[in-house]
Amino acid sequence: MPTKRKHRDEIWKEIKGYENKYEISNTGRVKSLSRKVERRNDSFHIIPEILKKQRVTKNGYATVYLAIGKSYRHFMVHRLVADAFCKKSKQKKFVNHKDGVKLNNHFSNLEWCTDSENKKHAYKIGLMSQKGESHASNKLTNKQVCEIFKSNNSTIELCEKYNVCYNTIFNIRHNRSWIHITSKLKKNDSNRRDM
């Protein structure tokens, strides 16, 4: 059940496990609620309601720290929004950003999914690729592949320079791998020769 509205169409809900302390909005903002805290001398101190500062991880996700007493815990903002506002089924444990923008934590941009669905979506919208430098297991960049393909150095020298095996260099030079790059270079070379 929504607890408060502040901006137009912004809905706030308590964060599970942090009731009466923190709320999450359907837009991805987090706030610490106003509360009365007892001091050592039996007097009380009022802590005002404030929006929590969010940090961005090196992977590009917004995070926030929540505390109960002296215990602090780190949370991904998109998961807090999805927990509060998106319908969840038991087998779907991952949260997908529909538009691929990791900082767009509006509830309408989030959905629960399986690991497989999440990866398929990332490939579909171009966040992940099975070829080139976007592939997780590739050591080389597109620029390095171009350098290797155009180089007059020996295969052994290139292996040492780029820290890859002989077959990697051989396959690039003979247009057997990284074809999306090397075929363009090969075409450009033949066009130059025709001129």
Descriptive account of the structure:
The chain has 195 residues and is α+β, with helices and mostly antiparallel strands. The protein folds into 2 domains: 4-124, Homing Intron 3 (I-Ppo) Encoded Endonuclease, Chain A (Alpha-Beta Complex), CATH 3.90.75.20; 132-194, no CATH class. It has helices at 77-85, 115-124, 142-150, 155-162, 166-173, 179-194, and strands at 4-5, 11-14, 22-25, 30-32, 35-38, 44-47, 50-51, 55-56, 62-68, 71-76, 94-97, 110-113. It has a 5-stranded antiparallel sheet, with helices on one face. Strands 8-9-10 form a 3-stranded antiparallel sheet. Strand 9 (62-68) and strand 10 (71-76) form a beta hairpin. Helix 4 crosses helix 5 (166-173). The model is unreliable at 1-5 and 190-195 (pLDDT under 50).
Give unreliable regions as ranges: 1-5, 190-195
Which of globular, elongated, flat, extended, rod-shaped describes the shape? elongated
Number of domains: 2
For the record, the CATH architecture of the largest domain stands as Alpha-Beta Complex
Q: Can you write the helix and strand succession as a string?
A: EEEEEEEEEEHEEHHHHH
Instruction: Count up the helices.
Output: 6
Kindly list the characteristics that best describe this protein.
195 residues; alpha+beta; Homing Intron 3 (I-Ppo) Encoded Endonuclease, Chain A; 2 domains; five-stranded antiparallel β-sheet; disordered N terminus
Describe how the helices and strands are arranged.
Layout: E1 4-5, E2 11-14, E3 22-25, E4 30-32, E5 35-38, E6 44-47, E7 50-51, E8 55-56, E9 62-68, E10 71-76, H1 77-85, E11 94-97, E12 110-113, H2 115-124, H3 142-150, H4 155-162, H5 166-173, H6 179-194
Helix pairs in contact: 4-5
